[in-house]
Amino acid sequence: MTLWTFMTSNRGKIKVLTIKDKKKVPVIVGELILRKTKAGSRPHKFRISNSDKKNEHLAPESFIEMLKKSDRILISTDCDGDTSSRINEMLTGFQLTSEPVNVCRLCLLQDKFNFVGKKSYRFHDEYICWDCAKDELYRYFRNSGFSWGEQTISYLEDLLCKSKDLDRTIGFLNPTELDKEFTHYDTITSESRISELRFNHLPLDKSLRNLLSKKADKLLPVQTLAVEQGLFDGINLLVTSVTATGKTLVGEMVGVNNILKKRGKMLFLVPLVALANQKYYDFSTKYSKIGLKTSIRVGSNRIKSSKNLKMKTNLDSDIVVATYEGIDYILRSGNSDSLGNIGTVVIDEVHTIEDKERGHRLDGLIARLKYITSNTQFIYLSATVANPDHLAKKLNASIVNYEHRPVPIERHLIYCEDHRKNKLMAKLVQEEYKQKSSKGHFGQTIIFTNSRKNCQHISKSLPISSSAYHAGMLQHERNRIEQRFKTGKLPVVVTTAALAAGVDFPASQVIFESLAMGIEWLSIQEFMQMLGRAGRPDYHDRGRIVILATPDKKYTANQEGTEDEIAISLLKGKLESLAVDYSEDDMMEEILASAAVTNSKRDLQSIHNSMVASYQINIYLKTLAKTGFLAQRGNSINLSKLGKIAAKHFLTTSKAILIKEGVVSNTEPMDIITSLELFDSAYFKSAAQISKSLNINLSSRVFQGSSLDILFDGETLSKLNPTLQDRLLNFATEFLTCGCKGSPFCGCPERKFSFKLLGLRGEGLSPEAIIDILEDTYGVTAYTGDILDYLEKAVRNLDAVLMMAQAYSKSDVYQKSITLRKKLEG
Ligand SMILES: Nc1ncnc2c1ncn2[C@@H]1O[C@H](COP(=O)(O)OP(=O)(O)OP(=O)(O)O)[C@@H](O)[C@H]1O
Ligand SMILES: [Mg+2]
Ligand SMILES: [Zn+2]
Ligand SMILES: [Zn+2]
Asked: CB under 6 Å to ligand 1: residues?
C-alpha cells in the first residue's frame, strides 16, 4: 500500500487529500486548520468533508500520525505562498519534507486528484487532465445547440488527444480564424516507387516521339505502368487512377501511334459535351502539327444561336472525339460502316457505366463497338471504379491500377455554421491566390456547392475575381471561363458536383462548401472525383482540399446522416461496390439499339453477353416482337419501322409507343413532345426574399419539393409586395388551374409551363428573351443552357414524331411537325 498526503490552499483554507494506491478518488478529503505556537505552526483541527463522513473530525495526533506514515507529502504549486510556508513550517517541526506538484484544478474542484504536466491539456492559462478536458468538450457539445454525431465526437476526441489543447479544439468547432495545423485531417502522399520511362525509349512513330518529347521527357507513373502492361502490344487496358495522373495521354499515345502505323483511326469517347469540346480543341492543336485531322461528334447542336462555334465534324478524320451518344447515334442509325477502319477506341470516364440512369447506354455502346470492329485496341480510362477487377474481366481488358497521387494532397476539415462559410472561403481563396508554386503558378481554387443558385451567390460574395460555372450556362461562356482559369487569370470558380468529372481546371485548392449535390449527399465516387481536382503535377507542388461541414445539417428532414458525420465518412471513404442492374425498359432499349447493328440473333446474343450486365435476351425479344418493334424468323432478327425509329432516337419502348399512339390518333405534335419531356428547371426569381419576409423555407425550384404548395396556399401570397403578387398570380392563373385531385403535383403545371416555353420559342424568341418574359410575367426564371438543352431534346423528339408520322402515313401530323421543328430550331 502506498499513501500520499496532498495539500493545497483553498480560499485561504488548507485542503488535504489522502490518497491510497495512487487512486484518483482520495480516501479522505478534509480541511486542516493550523494554529500558531511558539515552535511554529501546528495542526489544530482537521475537519473531514468526504460526503459519507461529513463534518466528523480527526484528532490532530491522528493527522500527524497519518503524515508520518505517508510515502510522499505533496504540495500543490497552486498553493498560495503564505499557506505553503505555514505548512512547510509544520512539516519541518516533525522532520518531514514535501514536494511541489502540479495537479488538475478541475479535478480538485470535484475532490479528485490527478497530476498534470506539460503533456496534459491546455485550457485557458492552465493544464488540465484528459478526463476533465473530455468533460469540458462534452459540455461544449451539449451547450452548442446542435446534436453532434458520434463519428464527429470521436474525431474531436482524437484531435484533442493529438493537440493537447482544449481551447483550440473547441475553437475548431466554430472557427472565425483558420487554424490550418488543426484543420489538417491527413495528407495523401505522392510517393511513387515506379521508375518512369522516357518517351525516347518507347516504340513510337518518330514524329509522335518528337512531338511528345517536346512537352515532357518522362512518362508519368500510370503511363509507365500502362506501357509495361502492353499498351504498345495491342493489349486492351482498363486504366484506373485518381484524377490528374495523366490517363488521357495513355489513350492518346497509343491511339495516335496506331494511326501513324496505319492501324486505323482513333475514337476518343467522353460522357459530356463540354469535355468533348475541350479534347477536340486540345487534339486539333496538338496533332495538326504532325498532319493529323481531328473532328468532333456530339449531340445534334440543332438550335440556332449566333454563338455556335464552327467545328469539324466529318467522320473521315484521323481522330474523332465524340460523346458516347454522338457515336452511338451513328451505330443506332445503322451507319456503322461510315466510321471506317478503327484502330483504337478510347473510352474516357468509363465509370459512367456505374451510373444508374446512363450506365446501360455506355455498356451497350461498348458492346456494339466491339462487335462492329476487329483488331481494334480498346483503352478504358477511369478515375474511380468500385470493383476494377470485375469490370476489367467483363470488358476483357488487363488492369492498370495506380493509386498514388502525382502531388501530395492535404485534406482539411472545418466544422462551421452556414453563415460563417462565406467569410472563411474568402480567406481561403485569397491566401491561396497569394501562394506561388515552384512551377510559377498562383494558387487557384474550385469551390463545390450543391446548387447552381448557390454557385452564383457564393461567387458574388467573394472579395476576389471569381465565376460561377455550371451546366445551365452557355457553352461559349463556359469555354471563356475555362480559358481564363487555365491561363491563371481567374482565381476562383464556383461549381457543382455535376461538373466534377473531366473538365480541366488546374486548381491547387478545392473547397467543399457543401457535401451534397442538390439534396442528396455526395457518393464516395463523386467525392473522390471532386477532391482529385486539387493539385496538378505540371502546375503545383501540392493540392489542398478543405471541407466546410455544417454540424447537424440535413438537406431534407428524413435524410440519413448529418453533414458533420458525412464529412468523416467521406474522408475515411471506402468505395461502395458496383451493382449493375438495369430496368426492363433500359434492357429493351439496348436490345433495340444493338439490333440496329446486326440481323443475327446469335450475334445479338453475343453482343449482350459482352455487356457488363449480362442478361437473357430471349424473353425480351418475345415482348419486343409482340409489341411490334421487331420480327424474329429463325436466326434472323429485323427491326420494324417502329423499332428503327426507337433505336435511332434513343427511345425506350414506352416512349416509342407513346409517340406512335399519338401520331396514329392525330395528336398535335406539341402535345406529343410535351408528354415525352418536360421542362422542370424553372426557379422562383425571388425565392430567397420570399423565404425571408414570410419566414418560411421556400425552395427556389418551382417544380420540385413542395414549393408550389407553400407559395400558393391561401394567405401566403397576400403578404408579398404587389408586383410580386401580380406576377405569381399570373403564374397561378396560367399554370395552376387544372381540377386534378393531386394538383399541383399532377404534372399539369409542368406541362403547361413547357407548352408556354415552346410557344415562346415558336414566336421566334431567343432563350434570353424567353427568360426575360418569364421573369417579368411570372416571377420565374431559368438558365439559358437549360432552355437550349430542352429545345434540343424537343427537336430530337420531333424528329422521332416526324419519322413515325411518315411510317404510319399521317401526312397531317407530319406537316405540323415539320413546321413546329422549323420554328423551334429558329
Ligand atoms: N508525361 C507527363 N509529364 C508531365 N505532365 C503530364 C504528363 N502526362 C500528362 N501530363 C499532364 O497531367 C495533367 C493531368 O492529365 P489528365 O488530364 O490526363 O488527367 P486524368 O488522369 O485524365 O484525370 P481525370 O480523371 O481528371 O480525367 C495534364 O495537365 C497533362 O498535361
Ligand atoms: Mg481524364
Ligand atoms: Zn482533471
Ligand atoms: Zn392537373
From this structure: 216, 219-220, 223, 243-249, 383, 502, 536-538
CA–centroid distance, residue 135 to ligand 3 (Å): 9
Q: What is the mean pLDDT of residues 500-512?
A: 82
Pocket test for ligand 1, best of 231, 240, 247 (most atoms within 8 A of CB): 247
* CA dihedral sign of residues 804, 809, 812, 816: positive
- pLDDT confidence of residue 577: 53
The pLDDT score that the predictor gives to residue 639 is: 96
| Ligand 4 centroid from CA 741, angstroms | 7
Atom of ligand 1 nearest to the CA of 381: 22
Ligand 4 centroid–CA 674 distance in Å is: 14
pLDDT, mean of residues 662-674: 95
Q: Give the pLDDT confidence score for residue 775 in this predicted structure.
A: 96
Contacts of 5 (CB under 8 A, 6+ apart): 16, 17, 18, 19, 66, 67, 70, 72, 73, 74
Inform me whether the pLDDT recorded for 718 exceeds 90.
no
**Residues 400, 403, 404, 410: is their CA dihedral positive or negative?**
positive
pLDDT of residue 297: 92
Hey, which of 249, 321, 504 would you mutate to test ligand 1's pocket, going by the most ligand atoms within 8 Å of its Cβ?
A: 249
Across residues 180-198, what is the average pLDDT?
A: 78
Query: What per-residue confidence (pLDDT) applies to 578?
Result: 52
Distance 367 CA to ligand 1 centre (A): 28
**Residues with Cβ–ion distance below 5 A, ligand 3:** 104, 106-107, 114, 129, 132
Contact (CB, 8 A) for 400 and 236: no
Q: What angle do CA 256, 257, 258 make, to 5 degrees?
A: 90
Supply the residue whose CA is at minimum distance from atom 5 of ligand 1. 538
Point out the ligand 1 atom lying closest to the alpha carbon of residue 538.
5
Report which bound ligand comes closest to the CA of 382: 1
Query: 72 by DSSP, 3-state: which?
Result: strand
Q: Is 624 within 8 Å of 592 (Cβ atoms)?
A: yes
Candidates 468, 464, 520; CA nearest to 499 is 468
As a whole number, mean pLDDT of residues 446-459 equals 93
First to last CA, the chain: 97
Are the beta carbons of 757 and 773 closer than 8 angstroms? no
How sure is the predictor about 703, in pLDDT bands with cuts at 50, 70 and 90? confident
The amino acid that residue 317 corresponds to is: S
Q: How far is the CA of 795 from the centre of ligand 3 (A)?
A: 73
CB 495 within 8 A of CB 444: no
pLDDT, tens digit (0-9, with 9 covering 90-100), for 333-388? 999 999 999 999 999 999 888 877 888 999 999 999 999 999 999 999 998 777 78
Q: Could you report the per-residue pLDDT of 8-18, keeping only the tens digit for each? A: 998 889 999 99
Nearest CA to ligand 1 atom 27: 502
- Could you report the per-residue pLDDT of 482-497, keeping only the tens digit for each? 999 999 999 999 998 7
Q: Which of 231, 538, 539 to mutate to test the pocket of ligand 1 (most atoms within 8 A of CB)?
A: 538
Which pLDDT score is estimated for 592? 96
